[in-house]
Amino acid sequence: MMYLGMDKGWVRPELIATAVGNYSQCADMPVDSAAAARPRVNNGITGDASRSSAELGKMAFDIKVDYAVKQIQGFLSAQK
Q1: 0.90 exceeded by the pTM?
Q2: Most buried among 15, 37, 51, 57, by the most CB within 10 A?
Q3: Which H/E stretch holds residue 55?
Q4: What is the pLDDT of residues 18-39, one digit of tens each?
């Protein structure tokens, strides 16, 4: 959302530092003890969003677009 809508009011930058929701830890992921120690609230956020950035958002968006393009190309080549 930061990458796509920082200038559109979709993101409240003043809240990013405290954007921590309910802690969710996958079994095979290392435990982030600093994040796990913070109090959690039911605010719709899973995990620690305080480390978010527009650069990370762009990387994730580009990955999704690249995957979609490859999938569409695969569908089109399968029709030939």
Answers
A1: no
A2: 57
A3: helix 54-78
A4: 777 665 555 565 666 666 666 6
pLDDT tens, 39-61? Answer: 666 666 766 777 778 888 899 99
Q: Is 19 left (phi over 0), alpha (psi -120 to 50) or beta?
A: beta
Sign of the alpha-carbon dihedral angle for 68, 66, 9, 47: positive
Please give the Cα distance from 76 to 29 (Å, whole number): 37
Reference 49, options 29, 24, 27, 72; nearest CA is 24
Contacts 24+ apart (CB under 8 A), 4-9: 4/57, 4/61, 6/54
What Å distances lie between residue 42 and 10, 19, 36, 49, 67, CA to CA?
20, 11, 15, 14, 32
Cβ atoms within 10 Å, residue 57: 17
